[in-house]
Amino acid sequence: NFMLTQPHSVSESPGKTVTISCTRSSGSIASNFVQWYQQRPGSSPTTVIYEDNQRPSGVPDRFSGSIDSSSNSASLTISGLKTEDEADYYCQSYDSSNDEVFGGGTKLTVL
Amino acid sequence: QVTLRESGPALVKPSQTLTLTCTFSGFSLTTSGMCVSWIRQSPGKALEWLARINWDDDKYYSTSLKTRLTISKDTSKNQVVLTMTNMDPVDTATYYCARIFPRDGYNYDYWGRGTLVTVSS
């Protein structure tokens, strides 16, 4: 089994850019797709990035994803921050035995 | 239109068995590649994947909970059922079911609204 570690919280001002990291504890981050979900209070999660860097239709191009094998981590970058982006963000991946893992979540505050 | 809806008891006693049903529409679990998972979220905590069932009836469980979980499907009713034995107050959470269809992109693209289960005597 493996873990995905995220910062507990990040904050930034409207219009700025923020990056949320997701570090995989074992196994290569590049071996299995990483997804990112946004969850607003009282709502179910929705996908903002899938398969490392793909955006579902309807998700603005202010959201982007990437992976870095050197740090064994994935990143979610949100540019041109808006107050509506304030939410919890979770990374998710899996391994060859079909074990699925969510990160601990990051609370994004847009000040 | 794809929808999923979780149902089950809102309150269970410690040591009891929880049975949750996910009733879905807009897709079929007989479609090659289709999968449904159960995911839970304790109050104020992170998402936790519990189990997944595939169109071909392959089943996968969280390593830490596998001895307590059973997932099954009834394709004629468009339902996926999760049972969790020996419930404990730490199992208090909102339980979600969600669809994943890797052919369209690997992600949980549709989620139910979740059902809150409280474990208390």
Structure description:
The complex is a heterodimer of chains A (111) and B (121). Chain A is mainly beta. Chain A is built from no helices and ten strands. Chain A has strands at 4-5, 9-12, 18-24, 35-39, 46-49, 63-68, 73-78, 87-94, 100-102, 106-110. In chain A, strands 2, 4, 5, 8, 9 and 10 form a six-stranded mixed beta sheet that branches. Chain B has 121 residues and is mainly beta. Helix content of chain B is 0%, strand content 51%. The termini of chain B are far apart. Chains A and B meet through strand 4 and strand 9 of A and strand 5 and strand 10 of B.
Low-confidence stretches of chain A: none
In whole angstroms, the N-to-C terminal distance of chain A is 37 Å
Provide mean pLDDT of chain B, rounded.
97
Q: Roughly how much helix do the residues of chain A carry, as a percent range?
A: under 10%
Low-confidence stretches of chain B: none
Succession of helices and strands of chain B: EEEEEEEEEEE
Oligomer, anyone? heterodimer
Distance N to C terminus of chain B: 40 Å
Strand fraction of chain A equals: over 45%
Overall outline of chain B: globular
| Alpha plus pi helix count of chain B | 0
Average pLDDT over all residues of chain A: 97
How does the helix and strand content of chain B classify structurally? mainly beta
Q: Largest sheet of chain A, if any?
A: 6 strands, mixed
Write down the Rg of chain A: 13 Å
Helix content of chain B: under 10%
SSE diagram, text form:
The complex is a heterodimer of chains A (111) and B (121).
Chain A (H helix, E strand, L loop, with lengths): L3 E2 L3 E4 L5 E7 L10 E5 L6 E4 L13 E6 L4 E6 L8 E8 L5 E3 L3 E5 L1
Parallel strand pairs in A: 2-10
Antiparallel strand pairs in A: 1-3, 3-7, 4-5, 4-8, 6-7, 8-9, 8-10
Chain B lengths: L2 E5 L3 E2 L5 E8 L9 E7 L5 E8 L4 E3 L7 E6 L4 E6 L8 E8 L7 E4 L3 E5 L2
Parallel strand pairs in B: 2-11
Antiparallel strand pairs in B: 1-3, 3-8, 4-5, 4-9, 5-6, 7-8, 9-10, 9-11
